[in-house]
Amino acid sequence: MDENWLVRETSFSRETMLARETVFTTGNGYLSTRGAFEEGYPGERGATLIHGVFDDAPVVITELANAPDWIPFAPRIGGQRLHLDEGELTGYERVLNLHNGLLRRKLRWRSPAGQTVDVEFERFADMADKNVLVQRLRVTPVNFSGEIEIEAGLNGVVANMAREHWNKMEQGSTGENGVYLESSTRHTGIMLCEAMRLLLVDAPGATFTVEQRENAPTVVARLRADVGQTVKAEKIVTLYTSLDVGRRTRAATLQKLDEITRGGPAFERQLAASEEAWERLWERSDVQIEGDDEAQVATRFNLYQLLIAAPQGDEYNSLGAKTLSGFGYRGHVFWDTEIFMLPFFTYTKPETARDLLLYRYHNLGGARRKAAYGGYKGAQFPWESSLGGEEATPRYVSGPDGAEIRVWTGDIEIHISADIAYAIWQYWLASGDDDFMMRYGAEIILDTAQFWASRAEWDPASGRYEFNDVIGPDEYHEHVDNNFFTNYLAKWHLELAFKTKDWLRQRDSAKYEELAGRLGLDPASDARWQDVIDKVYLGIVPDSKLFEQFEGYFQRRDVDLSTLEPRDKSVQALFGIKETNSTQVLKQPDTLMLMYMLPGEFSQETVRTHWDYYAPRTDVTHGSSLAPGIEAILACRMEDPEMAYPLYMQACQVDLKDLRHNTADGIHGGTAGSVWQAAVLGFGGVRVSEKGVDAEPHLPAHWRSLKFKLFCHGELREFDFENSQQ
Amino acid sequence: MDENWLVRETSFSRETMLARETVFTTGNGYLSTRGAFEEGYPGERGATLIHGVFDDAPVVITELANAPDWIPFAPRIGGQRLHLDEGELTGYERVLNLHNGLLRRKLRWRSPAGQTVDVEFERFADMADKNVLVQRLRVTPVNFSGEIEIEAGLNGVVANMAREHWNKMEQGSTGENGVYLESSTRHTGIMLCEAMRLLLVDAPGATFTVEQRENAPTVVARLRADVGQTVKAEKIVTLYTSLDVGRRTRAATLQKLDEITRGGPAFERQLAASEEAWERLWERSDVQIEGDDEAQVATRFNLYQLLIAAPQGDEYNSLGAKTLSGFGYRGHVFWDTEIFMLPFFTYTKPETARDLLLYRYHNLGGARRKAAYGGYKGAQFPWESSLGGEEATPRYVSGPDGAEIRVWTGDIEIHISADIAYAIWQYWLASGDDDFMMRYGAEIILDTAQFWASRAEWDPASGRYEFNDVIGPDEYHEHVDNNFFTNYLAKWHLELAFKTKDWLRQRDSAKYEELAGRLGLDPASDARWQDVIDKVYLGIVPDSKLFEQFEGYFQRRDVDLSTLEPRDKSVQALFGIKETNSTQVLKQPDTLMLMYMLPGEFSQETVRTHWDYYAPRTDVTHGSSLAPGIEAILACRMEDPEMAYPLYMQACQVDLKDLRHNTADGIHGGTAGSVWQAAVLGFGGVRVSEKGVDAEPHLPAHWRSLKFKLFCHGELREFDFENSQQ
Predict the structure, then answer these.
(1) Which of A509, B149, B331, B495 would staple B76 via disulfide (CB 3.0–4.6 Å)?
(2) Closest residue to B246, CB basis, from A167, A168, A242
(3) Whole-angstrom Cα distance, residue B633 to residue A323?
(4) Chain A interface mutation, best of B169, B368, B377, highest count of A Cβ atoms under 10 Å
């Protein structure tokens, strides 16, 4: 296998264990499982998170419930169960194959009694059959002959850190060395059945025992192995939730298990089918970089994480900010999805982009009520979204010293409604999916436009509309007035709404009339929208060439970030929330962000002027992980790929190298999305507009070439840039 | 139709409207719909409640969410929509046919403009196809010829009183005069799709319009009718929730709609199939009383309410205390199900009884945690149960003056765990369903026995085990020690557990070993159980022939209830909670209740002695509605059917006559169950024991005969008692 598809680890350390569990996550768009060990390890944070399986939780409102553990699979040698914290580990290698999603781990282990074995674990989430998970275990005695036991089980005693979410409903045997475990989330009542079967390959003398341990049904195989002789075991797992099949989860799960294992050992067969599905994904989605293996594997790693996390064929779930790879942000969905991750799907897997946007459509009900509760019209999407479309942002969290910190984003970080409209427009532009636009997209754009128009405040003194008391993407500054990003995008959104209305009226006047009736679109709303477009304040400060990020920003204290180096934490962690708020230091440069999003609206010179001011004031290393990728793109647009490159690598390696010391909480999904954008829209210089697609690449000097594909208007276009500098 | 199958109402009054909505509930074991009007009425409390569709709610924790309204169906005459609070009503009749579940209403109405029409509404929930609801509307102009419009719709703007539970996800047209509405509960994310199609019968000139009103898609038919010419319209509704089919609710709903309406008008066809299903239900379940039409129809009314409410072919839901007919008790499940309602199913529809008990099995997880949270072993069922098996009893409610009243039942009304074991035993005895007992029943009985043994407190001073700080079935007395009902039943339960263990060990030793391992059954637990059985305190007071209801009861203030007459409210409402607690007045006579439940354990003389003491002290008219039916049975056992009869009618007519002024909140499901028990086990004198079934009838003098059937050991036995006194 080409090393550029492999993430490899050659030693094990307790210190990095939790971050590496995140890195070695496997998944298939239905669920993901963190890279914890099949045999377990003290202090591990193993988890399997399934799209949509939310349960209530104090403070954080709702979270994806860590599902009953399906991975337990371990040998016992002379009665001693394999545990890496006992005995002696004399060989260790773990490899994640990004090309086919297979995770493999090889150990040489000496038991406390001195028996040495070679052990090889493999597992994958079947990309071709989302309800199937597959494991293989190979054990070879190195210095003895004797009895080996293989223990394979399901374990319902799981928690999200310490919070338990499941009630066991039933456990039992399926016959033929299989067991099942049926559980239900405690509050939302979502049912989940998992079943497994243990199969040995070429082991005629083996005996099997089913052990119905409470909430942990287990099958144990016993057999004799001679020195050098490899015992091969497979464990096939199937699972369904009530979100899939209603409450017939057990029947569906057992039927699937029988179907998969009917022909005996199934690992190779399932892997082949899964590999084919992976092949089809990479065929469209791969980004090939020649001349930089580190960047190549890191780039693919980020795309892999997006591919395993995005719901497949499922319009009722979206992609959380931390994907399905950790407990951070509880599986909640933020703007990260639409602005950072969605472009990857819009351009390489548009059917998934459509589903992700349908998730928003299906949650318009919650958005309408959020608007109504605030006293506004139309639809205002929640800052954090989960099950049922309610605002899921905690109102407070515990700070490091235990004090409660009020979280304001759910109340006033309002730009998300425009971000979603922007993503719909981008999807429409790229896909030409008029059907989506007519049936769903237009309604979202128009009803969120109603929100913006009613949220705008008229200031008679200055004769302008304002959006006051907001948080922009730069979250170091709370409760600001007239955030440039927010105001500008709101204006852009209202203009888009007019275009959408006109388009819809022409394409399907009956649908238009229906929507106009339901959403209250009339001459009065038209007039209001136009008035806000004409008169919204846009941060133009007299005698300055700069848009001011928000009113009064330039008066805040200026801090030379270089004076704080070296540092290992964010400026907010150093200064505190209040003090940071009083400076010009940015968590992310949202004025630059806007210029990235709307490239046609700002001149090269304007961008450069703003770069020169805002980039040095941005906490790009420890502020938002979303910033480096976007800055890399702007650097490319300013024709400076060498400046872009370290920013790109900072984004690429945020989790591979745990640059922000929080990879244990899960993959930085938005950052992963920004990697694709930086590669394709930055170095590749691709721009998609109404007129079509063009590209002006700017490759780092050491890259020999950059290749990728993207869909534009239903057509898969291939780009292959040789580096002219080489 | 035999009048003894009909509940008839010949006038409409606003005052009784809400109670009558409850009485005229239609349903099919999947959902029920209150008898609100198709055209709506100000102040109505229409509702459709679907098994399992719970959503979070403040204070009451969780409640069945009133589903989007499927019944809107009304004519417009000369542009004026039918409304009974406008124009003039000159004819009115409403009839519920208990035999086939058809609700029919006939009106003669003069519009404000003076146009008079005869209108006939019919509707039923299809008993043969649970996801289908059927309506018919017939309109006949009496004094004019002209345009008639028929409006048929779905309405997502619904609430549980004022609390809204749904987000609209999508509305649309199905083609062919159909619309759909897809919604999701706000917190639990349960999806529901409803679809409908409007069909006219013999109306070639009609035109149809689809009106996509926000959250209320509607189809309007317009046609001309001549005086005396009847316009016939049908509305076919289908619906599925994600509990049925996962998130494919829309596809399932639309497919079913097409299937049902493929052949055009479907009312007659669906009614015929539904009637057949009803026929099969009544074939086993009917209780026939000759010589007392009032008792006959009232008895059938109660059985009807149980038949439409019990989940059909569904082991994940149970039957709430108020069935599915109102918002009272929020759809929560109490002991009412196992002790009062279950016997009807155990003896006439054992497959439903099994499902109801499986619901408890599936919720053992919650029961185990409730025990663990209290510091006990084993499983303790919640006093109120809903989705997910958590304790769903509110911790407080608002009193009439707005003050918060602490509700203690969830904490200390612990007898429910023994009630469930009792119900399992009763089901087993009647059905001989060893398979259920081995796989499920035994585990419940044994793990709840573990709870009792650990909950028992040893009092070294008296040398006895006690159960202190409890509430017995008589809820007028809170925080009592050694409630006789609770202590006796706990002892009985532990004895049952020993028998169950022995039986299981003999029948299937492997299953026994598995259970023993999982539940911690060992010599120590055996010893503890036996010790509690031998030494639990049973309320025997020196120098008294009476078991004392709880310790110190006899010292409480005695009140002659006759001195409070006439009264129209409960003693607790008259005296207040605290004052009532200090008296001997009972909400229900739980010592007598126990003697009813365990007839073999108390002599006739003992029963009579206790009756003489406790019955006069019971607030039988306004205390618990569960009391009269049980007292009627005891009266029969004391061979006094004439004393039993008024008690029986009090139970029978509690909702038909709104005797307790709370029928608006829903049918008294437990009372309905007590009616069947009083008829069959009381007047019919049936007793089922290990030895078999026998009967010693005691009919009221004016009854000519009593006929019913019941299953015993899988065999349907028929009983036909002629009254020998006549």
Answers:
(1) B149
(2) A242
(3) 62
(4) B169
Strands B464-466, B457-459: pairing is antiparallel
Which active-site residues of B does the annotation give? 475
Among A514, A518, A519, which would you mutate to test the B interface (most chain B Cβ atoms within 10 Å of its Cβ)?
A514
Taking only residues 232 to 291 of chain A, the set having a beta carbon closer than 8 angstroms to any beta carbon of chain B reads 241-247
CB atoms B212 and A517 under 8 Å: yes
CA B478 and chain centroid, separation: 25
Interface probe for A, chosen from B130, B164, B242 (most Cβ of A below 10 Å), is B242
* Chain B CB contacts of A191 below 8 Å: 316
Nearest to B104 by CA among B45, B150, B38: B38
The arrangement of strands across the sheet holding B116-125 comes to: B6-9, B88-97, B102-110, B116-125, B132-141, B231-241, B191-201, B178-185, B166-173
Report pLDDT for B724: 78
Would you say the C-alpha torsion B468, B470, B475, B476 has a positive or negative sign? positive
Considering only CA atoms, give the Rg of chain B: 27
| Buried residues in A205-222 as b, exposed as e (16+ CB within 10 A) | ebebebebebbbbbbbbb
d(CA A435, CA A401): 52
| DSSP per-residue letters across A242-264 | HHHHTB-HHHHHHHHHHHHHTTS
DSSP per-residue string spanning B325-338: SSSGGGG-B-HIII
User: 10 Å Cβ neighbour count for B491?
Assistant: 22
The answer to whether residues B106 and B136 touch, using CB atoms and an 8 Å cutoff, is no
The 10s digit of each residue's pLDDT in A564-583 is 999 999 999 999 999 999 99
Quote the CA–CA distance of B218 and B290 in Å, as a whole number.
48
Tokens of B88: 């003039």
Q: A25 and A32 in contact (C-beta within 8 Å)?
A: yes
pLDDT tier at A1, thresholds 50, 70, 90: low
Q: Which residues, given as ranges, of chain B have pLDDT below 50?
A: none
Is there a contact between B388 and A169 if contact means CB atoms under 8 Å apart?
A: no
Measured between alpha carbons, how far is B331 from A188 in angstroms, rounded to an integer? 16
Which residues does A560 contact at the CB level (< 8 Å), separation at least 6? Answer: none
Q: How far is A62 from chain B (nearest CA, A)?
A: 9
Task: Report the alpha-carbon distance of residue A629 to residue A284 in Å, rounded.
Answer: 22
- All residues at 6 or more sequence positions from A96 whose CB lies less than 8 Å from its CB, including other chains: A6, A7, A8, A23, A24, A26, A35, A102, A103, A104
Exactly one of A475, A478, A548, A631 is catalytic; name it: A475
Range A73-81 average pLDDT: 96
Name residues 203-222 of chain A within 8 A of B (Cβ).
212-214
* Predicted confidence (pLDDT) per residue in B442-477, tens digit: 999 999 999 999 999 999 999 999 999 999 999 999
Task: Tell me whether the omega of the peptide bond preceding residue B204 falls within 30 degrees of 0, making it cis.
Answer: no
Report pLDDT digits (tens) over A119-145.
Answer: 999 999 999 999 999 999 999 999 999
Structure token pair of residue B610: 């206790």
A-chain residues within 8 Å CB-CB of B246? 241-246
Amino acid (1-letter code) at residue A397:
V
Q: Nearest CB to B189: which of A186, A388, A517?
A: A388
Cα separation, B473 vs B491, whole angstroms: 17
Beta carbons of B167 and A316 less than 8 Å apart? no
Mean pLDDT, chain A, as a whole number? 96
Give pLDDT, residue A403: 86
Beta bridge pairs of residue A221: A150, A208
pLDDT given at position A726: 64
Q: Do B167 and A191 touch (CB under 8 A)?
A: no
Here the tokens at position A507 are: 């394409």
Residue B567's φ and ψ, nearest 5 degrees, are -140, 160
Tell whether A191 is within 8 A of chain B (Cβ).
yes
